[in-house]
Each structure stands twice: as C-alpha cells, then as structure tokens.
Design a protein that fits this description.
199 residues; mainly alpha; 90% helix
C-alpha cells in the first residue's frame, strides 16, 4: 500500500501558511513598536505573545491532527509488512524443515528402492525360470507325443505294408497252386457253408 500523495501537498501548504502567519505575527509588533522602548513588557506585547503562542499551538495541533491519519496508515502498513514478513519467514522456515526432512530420509528411500528393485528382479528371474522350465516340459511332452504318434503311424504303416505284401504273395501263390478243379471245389465248399449258416 502506497501512501496517498494528496496529504503531502496539502500538509506542505498548511505548514508554509502557518510559518508565514507566525512570521507576520512576530514581525508586526517589532515593526509597530520600533520607536518605543521595551514593547515586550507592555500589555500589548504580552497580548501579542499569547496570541502568537495560541496561533502556533493551534497550527501545530492542526498540523498534527491532519498528519495523524497519515502516520496511522503508515504505521498500519508497516505493521502489515512486518506481519507478512513474519508469515513469509515462517513459511520459508517450514519449507526448509520439510526439505531437510526429505533430504535426511533420501538415503533410506534410495536403499529401500534398491532393495525393492533387487527383490522384484529376483522374483522376476525365478518366475522366468519357472516359466521356461514349464515351457520345456510342455515341449518335451509334445515331442514325446509326436514320437509316439510317429511310432504308431510307422507300426500301422508297417502292418499295412506287411498285410498288402502278404495278400499279394498269397494271391501269387494261389494263382500258381489253384487249378480250375481246385477252384470249383473251393467254390462248392463256400456255398455249402453259406447254406449251413443260413439255416
């Protein structure tokens, strides 16, 4: 808050006018009674002295009465600035204490973060090892299943091949060994068995 500039020119003119009146009142009796001796001891001298004294007192009281609000606002401004400065100092002190507390605990925070990071890395490594082990077991089981399936398929293929070769060989042997009479005998036996099974 700035002091209002309107008080200063008014107080300045008031002080100048009071001083001018004071000088005129002091000089007037001296000029008027220059020829007489000892005017200060006359009744008029004493009256002028009291009038001048009263005027000076009134001027001083008036000047102080007009200046008091200015002094009051100035003192209030100073008190507000002092209070604001105290609040700012307390806030700065509180902030300094908070920063010092944080700095004091930073070593423990760093150690805590390191320990947590180490634990999480160990946990993650163990999890990855377990996952890799599990994946390897799955792959091994799948490979074993494929091997078994391949063995079964090969065995079936071998059986089919053996059966086909046996049928082909039997067909060759039969065609060589069966004569038309033997064929007819076999056909009659087959038909006879069909009749028996039908009854």
């Amino acid at each position: 808050m700035k002091r209002s500039p309107r008080f200063f020119p008014w107080i300045h003119w008031q002080a100048v006018s009071c001083c001018g009146v004071f000088l005129l009142l002091i000089a007037a009796p001296a000029i008027a009674q220059e020829a007489t001796t000892g005017p200060e001891n006359s009744q008029t001298g004493w009256i002028f002295r009291w009038i001048i004294f009263a005027i000076v007192v009134v001027c001083l009281v008036y000047a102080f009465a007009k200046a008091v609000p200015s002094f009051r606002t100035t003192s209030e401004e100073i008190a507000q600035r002092i209070a604001e400065g105290a609040r700012r100092r307390e806030a700065a002190e509180r902030q300094r204490r908070e920063i010092q507390a944080k700095l004091a605990g930073i070593d423990t925070e760093v150690t805590k973060f390191r320990d947590e990071a180490k634990r999480s890395m160990e946990t993650e490594a163990a999890r990855l090892k377990a996952l890799a082990r599990h994946e390897a077991e799955i792959i091994e089981r799948a490979a074993q299943a494929e091997i078994l399936a391949a063995q079964r398929a090969a065995a079936l293929e071998m059986k089919a091949l053996a059966a086909r070769l046996a049928v082909e060989r039997a067909a060759v042997v039969l065609t060589e060994q069966i004569t038309p009479e033997a064929q007819a005998s076999l056909f009659r036996t087959f038909v006879a068995e069909l009749d028996r099974s039908a009854n």
